From TrEMBL:
<keyword id="KW-0472">Membrane</keyword>
<feature type="transmembrane region" description="Helical">
    <location>
        <begin position="214"/>
        <end position="242"/>
    </location>
</feature>
<protein>
    <recommendedName>
        <fullName>Glycosyltransferase RgtA/B/C/D-like domain-containing protein</fullName>
    </recommendedName>
</protein>
<feature type="transmembrane region" description="Helical">
    <location>
        <begin position="363"/>
        <end position="385"/>
    </location>
</feature>
<feature type="transmembrane region" description="Helical">
    <location>
        <begin position="35"/>
        <end position="56"/>
    </location>
</feature>
<keyword id="KW-1133">Transmembrane helix</keyword>
<feature type="transmembrane region" description="Helical">
    <location>
        <begin position="129"/>
        <end position="150"/>
    </location>
</feature>
<feature type="transmembrane region" description="Helical">
    <location>
        <begin position="162"/>
        <end position="179"/>
    </location>
</feature>
<feature type="transmembrane region" description="Helical">
    <location>
        <begin position="185"/>
        <end position="202"/>
    </location>
</feature>
<keyword id="KW-0812">Transmembrane</keyword>
<feature type="transmembrane region" description="Helical">
    <location>
        <begin position="329"/>
        <end position="351"/>
    </location>
</feature>
<feature type="transmembrane region" description="Helical">
    <location>
        <begin position="248"/>
        <end position="267"/>
    </location>
</feature>
<feature type="transmembrane region" description="Helical">
    <location>
        <begin position="6"/>
        <end position="23"/>
    </location>
</feature>
């Protein structure tokens, strides 16, 4: 039965790829879109197999734990749908719906897991509760976000389609972590739609469709990764200002972020609930209580500007340079290490071979500032290599794609020399 369901939904999604205008107008052929989907399905299946491997070692990973919880919710959904949905709004905390960004005793922190489990229970009505049938749905959903990124970069680099293709779809950690049954697939969907609609709104005007999709994406982030809003919103503001300014986009973004830095450390004096430094410290302390094989030592963070400044080099060292070769203790860390140093090698090659004549798009300045601010947030709060690799993978296409597209390839240089 599960194989028939898998084949049925696979054919349905392949058919939908041909019918939905968002994919048809992406700049990819129908066959290319279908190949991308199949690659993501394979990555999602591999994601599940990795979970089975660790389960056999006595460690139930998140994706399978969530799947099991979704199955447990099935009887309640069928017998009492009212209670099934009402449970989402049940709040046993004395402070009610406060502590919005906190990872402790927070309804908001519980919501992203509770809602995801409810979504899985609803999805099981269609999939029969089969894990690998559900993979098809998540691969399709996350692919929408990846295609959104592709469409933005393809407009910026219309003559570099294959470089855009590789950067948008084939960065290994991004492909792996966003194709499986986990919140990262929904976050990839949200980010892709937000960036596509924001870019399109700036260029073509803010239609109702763009605005509705943009706010839907922000709502998804609010529910499933609310801390991302802390770094995404100032980056969007910087992008908007840079797009309307005649000054260099990097200078504009730097000025906006300077103002944001002041707000980050001082807004708590005006609105105590928005104590961003304290939230970061709490998140780091929560990671310190966890146990795992990939734990690494980290300096303790304090909710002060000087502490963040002193910890900045370690934060960037963690997210830009690790895993080190001596961090490798299994196959998966080895793959992460190879990706890390492969991307660093690409960056070094880009420094030497980049095309210096290309004007800098405001979106590219946004990508740099958004990615680096997220890297800092991860480095400040996370002390597990596995979690760090997963969190940073979400923005790697924003850095890899521009590097691939702005390389001055030898053949292109030779052709240009002949023209001259």
């Amino acid at each position: 039965m599960k194989y028939l369901l898998f084949l049925f939904y696979l054919l349905v999604f392949v058919w939908m790829l041909r019918r939905i205008a968002f994919f048809r107008n992406s700049g990819l052929t129908q066959r290319q879109v279908q190949i991308v989907f199949l690659v993501k399905v394979f990555a999602g299946i591999f994601y599940g197999w990795v979970g089975i491997f660790y389960s056999m070692q006595g460690q139930l990973v998140d994706t399978w734990w969530l799947h099991i919880q979704g199955l447990k919710e099935g009887p309640l959904l069928r017998s009492d749908p009212g209670s099934f949905f009402a449970e989402l709004f049940r709040n046993n905390y004395k402070h009610g719906f406060g502590r919005f960004l906190s990872s402790r005793d927070s309804w908001w922190n519980d919501l992203h897991t509770n809602l995801f489990i409810k979504l899985l229970a609803l999805l099981n009505l269609l999939s029969g509760g089969f894990y690998f049938v559900n993979v098809l749905f998540f691969a399709f959903v996350s692919m929408i976000g990846s295609v959104g990124l592709f469409r933005v970069f393809h407009q910026i680099y219309p003559d570099r389609k294959w470089a855009v293709f590789a950067g948008s779809f084939l960065v290994p950690s991004y492909l792996f972590w966003t194709s499986g049954i986990y919140r990262d697939a929904l976050v990839a969907l949200a980010l892709g739609l937000i960036l596509y609609c924001f870019y399109s709104g700036l260029r073509k005007g803010w239609t109702a469709r763009y605005l509705a999709t943009l706010f839907s994406g922000l709502l998804l982030l609010l529910v499933f990764r609310n801390y991302l809003l802390v770094v995404l919103l100032p980056a969007l503001v910087a992008w908007w200002v840079a797009a309307r300014s005649r000054r260099h986009p990097m200078l504009v973004c730097a000025a906006v972020y300077a103002g944001y830095l002041v707000l980050f450390f001082n807004l708590r004096y005006l609105v105590p609930a928005l104590d961003f430094p304290r939230v970061a410290v709490e998140k780091q302390e929560d990671f310190f209580t966890l146990i795992g094989n990939s734990i690494i030592p980290a300096p303790k963070l304090e909710p002060t500007f000087l502490s963040f400044l002193a910890n900045g080099p370690h934060a960037l060292e963690l997210t830009l340079l690790r895993p080190y070769p001596w961090d490798v203790y299994n196959f998966f860390v080895l793959v992460s290490c190879l990706e890390t140093y492969g991307l660093l090698a690409l960056f070094g090659y880009w420094l030497v071979r980049r095309n210096r004549g290309q004007p800098l798009e405001p979106f590219l300045a946004f990508s740099v500032f958004f990615a680096l601010s997220l890297f800092l947030m991860i480095g400040f709060t996370v002390n597990f290599l596995g979690a760090m690799v997963r969190y940073r993978s979400l923005v790697l296409p924003l850095l890899v794609t521009p590097m691939l597209c702005s390389l001055a390839w030898p053949k292109r240089q030779k052709a240009n020399a002949l023209v001259k």
